[in-house]
Amino acid sequence: MNSISQVIHTCETCAAIKQAKWVKPLRYGGRWSKYKYGEAWQIDYTTLPQTRQGKRYVLTTMEATTGWLETYLLPHATSRNTIQNT
User: Fold this and answer.
1) Fewest 10 Å CB contacts: which of 30, 43, 73, 75?
2) Domain count, the chain
3) Nearest-angstrom CA–CA distance, 28 and 44
4) Are 65 and 37 in contact (CB under 8 A)?
């Protein structure tokens, strides 16, 4: 953990963006013990102006423990599109 914290505090790019005051550990004990990596995803649709290709919705999926985000442009917000793209 110390090496990660040292890299963040000494990285010029990190310092230019925002230097972290502390690193929040991911742990299987405590409040994160309910899920392991890849087991919990948060899914949501957002509407946008329609594109030339007819796509009007953005499906956003985020892995709950790591914060990994994926987005997909879709023409319809349906359960079929949700299942096919997750």
Assistant:
1) 30
2) 2
3) 26
4) yes
For the stretch 1-57, pLDDT in tens is: 456 667 766 777 766 666 555 555 555 544 545 667 778 888 999 998 999 999 999
Nearest to 57 by CA among 74, 81, 82, 79: 74
Question: 74 forms bridges with which residues in the sheet?
Answer: 57
Q: Is the pLDDT of residue 85 over 90?
A: no
Same domain, 42 and 81: yes
Distance CA 12, CA 66 (A): 23
Domain carrying residue 23:
1-33
State how beta strands 41-47 and 57-63 pair: antiparallel
User: What pLDDT shows up at residue 5?
Assistant: 67
Least confidently predicted of 23-27, 53-57, 67-71, 82-86: 23-27
